[in-house]
Amino acid sequence: MALLDVKNLCVDFHTDQGTVHAVRDISFSVGESEAVGIVGESGSGKSVTMYSVMGLLAGNGSITGGSVSLNGQEITESAFPDHKAYEAAMDQIRGNQMAMIFQDPMTFLNPVVKIGKQITEVIKNHQKVTDAEARARAIELMGQVGIPSPEKRLNQYPHEFSGGMRQRIIIAIALANNPKLIIADEPTTALDVTIQAQVLDLIRDMKEKMNSSVIMITHDLGVVASLCDRILIMYGGKIVESGSDREIFYDPKHPYTRGLLQCVHNPEKKEKLKPIAGSPPDLLKPPAGCPFVDRCPEAMKVCKLYMPEVTTYSATHQCACWLEEANRRKGENHG
Ligand code: SF4
Ligand code: MG
Predict the structure, then answer these.
(1) DSSP annotation of 208
(2) Where is the ABC transporter domain (predicted)?
């Protein structure tokens, strides 16, 4: 059984302009101690997917279809008798069985509460411990995430830490209750390049030490390269390709995945990065066919009309694109 199982998930947002279909029928799972990357541009639905899993959708957002289960337990609101029961269950799950590392530590940390108290509170919310035990655990966690002289720094406020150190504190808080699943949403985007690498190393180390599963959400394929076993590529609210790290990096099938790979900075090559021209589809009126059609260098007539069929290349590698079908037909005609 997978640790996390998402099936046919659909998420809508109600806005003044109409209904935005942000996530459109996606399915994936995450196994025990597996690291999965969800990669796509902003607006692709990657963060919305994970906020849905955590039960943290904004007030105008709702899951309109599908299921999410953690360890075999259904955790979408529709599985609970009422909203109160759902919130109570999620309070037990969040920060305990699954924890989230956010992009901007300052939106998560309380600026007027000392760091030590913010860590011990998360521990005490889920574990029966004395104040002294919680404090000792906080010091241990701060040491583990590489914060020097934790005993002294326990009494400091968030603004007294650098951006990189604050992200380490967020990681310490996420790890506080030994979660089975850690969800990191663009955890290094706000940091400079050297610190980014250190924070990614830390997440990798912690994952290995604690044997937990990780979902890494990012717009940058480079970020998931060394961390993730499996990668999902999202575009226009759909998963357009999924594969092992090797399959995605060495045998990408979807034109969008290939485009993303050209945006990855390679320090060995002095090539210029090629951003993908154009902008993502308007999910107020999702396209009938392939969501990438307006930007795809290989688009065909069929792409605009019909949603691409999914081709399976291996047990881990799938891609939704009409090219495979077109190539097969060409082969038939010539053979
Ligand atoms: Fe491009 Fe067509 Fe494939 Fe979409 S289905 S990615 S438009 S070739
Ligand atoms: Mg996002």
Answers:
(1) H
(2) 4-261
CB atoms within 10 A of CB 96: 17
**Which distant-in-sequence residues (6+ apart) come within 8 Å of 323 by Cβ?**
253, 255, 298
Structure token pair of residue 297: 């260098």
Look at residue 136 in the predicted model and tell me its pLDDT: 96
| CA-atom Rg of the chain in angstroms | 21
Q: Which atom of ligand 1 is nearest to the CA of 291?
A: 4
Q: Which atom of ligand 1 is nearest to the CA of 254?
A: 6
Task: Report residue 71's pLDDT band, with 50, 70 and 90 as the boundaries.
Answer: very high
Per DSSP, the three-state class of 42 is: coil
Mutation choice for ligand 1 from 300, 325, 329, CB with most ligand atoms inside 8 A? 300
Categorize the per-residue pLDDT at 272 as very low, low, confident or very high, splitting at 50, 70 and 90: low
323 CB within 6 A, ligand 1: yes
For residue 231, report the phi and psi dihedrals to the nearest 5 degrees.
-130, 135
* Both tokens assigned to 26: 């996606």
CB 47 within 8 A of CB 260: no
CA distance 219 to 216: 10
CA–CA distance, 114 with 154 (Å, rounded to integer): 7
Specify the pLDDT at position 57: 92
The per-residue pLDDT for range 111-170, each reduced to its tens digit, is 999 999 999 999 999 999 999 999 999 999 999 999 999 999 999 999 999 988 999 999
Type of residue at 170: I
Q: In what order do the strands lie in the sheet with 18-30?
A: 18-30, 4-15, 61-70, 73-74
Whole-number Å distance between alpha carbons of 52 and 62: 8
**Sequence-separated (6 or more) residues with CB below 8 Å from residue 249:** 221, 225, 261
